[in-house]
Amino acid sequence: MALKHRRQKKEPATTTSEKEHTTSHSLLLGALGVVCIIFAVCVLQIYDRGGAFKECTSITRDDHYTIGGYKYKQVQRIACQKNAINATELFENNVPIVVVGTEALEWPAAQWSPKSLAERFLSLKDIVSVEQSTDNTTVADSLMGSKSYFIHWDKEKPILRDAGKEDLQQPHKTVQVTASSFLKAMVADDVGNSHNVTYFSANLNSRSHTSSFLEALRKDIGSISSLLYSNTRKQNEEKVFLWAGTKGATACMHFDTSHNAYHQIYGQKRFVLKPPTDIPSLQFFPVVHPSDRQLHIPWVPDGSDDNTMIVDLSPGETLFLPAHWLHQVIALTSSISVNVWSLSNAGHIMEDIMSNPLQGLGYKHDWPTDKLLLVLQHFLPALIKIALQHTTDSKTFILNLLEHKYTAQTSNHDFNTGILGWMDYKSEEQSTPFPCSVSRGRGLDEYVKGPALTTGKRFHEIEPIELAVVYLEVFVEVLSEFAVGSRDTARFLRDCL
User: Which among 295, 288, 213, 188 is positioned nearest to 250, based on CA atoms?
Assistant: First the structure.
């Protein structure tokens, strides 16, 4: 049962006018734990298995990078014979690794360069949307000097239809150009004549686009079977994306629910990686925000932690990045890359849960708002207790969620200060208590017991429990926003649960 957004009457005391539904998924927090405390052991396990990996040899250049006076762990590299890769095993090791020798080397796309593509599509008039940097998105740090951040912006989020322009603005700008103009800009960047940092990404498998440019590029991508995670639950849909940009283009630190095989075709990119266990210590946008799963502010490493890993990808190398790993990606030169995503087991479980999130509660779209709120006020605390196997009470869970996602940070480079005021559960705008529903009868705890048990046990299938917590946060956020709207989600969580 898909959730259709419910609109409420506005309270006189409230100020802004945002509301809407959100998408179901979000992410993260994977099982690193003991396996990754000693990194060398993790890598040795790959070789000790033999089988698909006995034809691979280590080509790691050094254990550490030294940048800006700080040492960072380096991602391991292996060189493999043809057909020696088992992507599923690589991903399930839950440790990033770079492979030289994947089938991507045989793609016609392996010969791409800005110059060759510019010449090939010289007369093409196809229009593409590219992102350009602004002064607000340019930051300096020890990893690469000055660079321009591009934060993911989901234009399909329903909240964007209701939010005022002054409250919710994309940090960088989107411009329409011909494909040939963009490619010429990349060529100019190669010779040092580029003025704007520009970034372009596209789903090469999208059936909605009619671009002959993208269709031609997709035909240059050969077999991807050895790059896919083989999921035992259901057939994975292939997702092949193109990433191209000029020097300095940087994808903000974020995480995905899919396994990622990222192949570098042209130029160099630097990946700054942090394990899923670091997620709770960082501040991310809420699920209702167009940039959910992204950091509030640019993450600038300072050498103060031992978990950060760095790898520079060169042409012909493929990074196998397991789901839920944090990554920030910097174009060290003009760059062209292609990646293949495969949804993780945890992602598939969450898809199943969100296909009918109110299962067993007898919910109907014509329920009065008070009834839905009353049921959720009993259902969600009961679900949290079961989902977390009684390790954390619901009040503690909700407080951690609010601190993790609904607390504004102060920074000179906050990507979206305007929206955080009405999302910050501690802000003056959120100071008025939410009018929680009051029970007018008995038996609600018993009524929600069965559905809470059924849904809660599904979260037991997501391991480890730290990862289950992350997905549970998403579930609670989505249902809360569905009931009260995005503007009041923080108050509802704070005052009613």
Answer: 295
Over residues 321-332, the pLDDT tens digits come to 999 999 999 999
Angle at Cα 265 formed by Cα 205 and Cα 198, nearest 5°? 75
Cα separation, 328 vs 255, whole angstroms: 9
CA distances from 98 to 56, 258, 298 (A): 12, 17, 25
The conformation of residue 232, written as its DSSP 8-state character, comes to S
Range scoring the smallest mean pLDDT among 26-35, 124-133, 313-322, 467-476? 26-35
Q: Using one digit for the tens of pLDDT, what is the confidence trace for 349-369?
A: 999 999 999 989 999 989 999
pLDDT exceeds 90 at position 160: no
Nearest in space to 139 (alpha carbons), one of 414, 476, 494: 414
For 97-111, what is the mean pLDDT? Answer: 94
CA 208 to chain centre: 22
Whether residue 250 contacts residue 197, with contact meaning beta carbons closer than 8 Å, is answered with no
Q: Which of 399, 424, 394, 428 is nearest to 487 (CA)?
A: 424
- Could you give the CA distance from residue 488 to residue 52 in angstroms, rounded to a whole number? 52
Share of the chain above pLDDT 70, in %: 76
Residues 180 and 124: beta-carbon distance below 8 Å? yes
Looking at every residue in the chain, the average pLDDT score rounds to 80
Measured distance CA(98)–CA(73) in Å, rounded: 14
* DSSP conformation class of 284: B
Contact 237, 136 (CB under 8 A): no
Helices (H) and strands (E) in the chain, counts: 13, 18
CB 165 within 8 A of CB 16: no
pLDDT of amino acid 20: 37
Secondary structure of 95-157 as H, E, C letters: CCEEEECCHHHHCHHHHCCHHHHHHHCCCCCCEEEEEECCHHHEEEECCCEEEEEECCCCCCC
Q: Which amino acid is at 432?
A: T
Range 64-68 average pLDDT: 75
- What contacts 1, CB < 8 A, 6 or more positions away? 355, 356, 357, 358, 359, 363
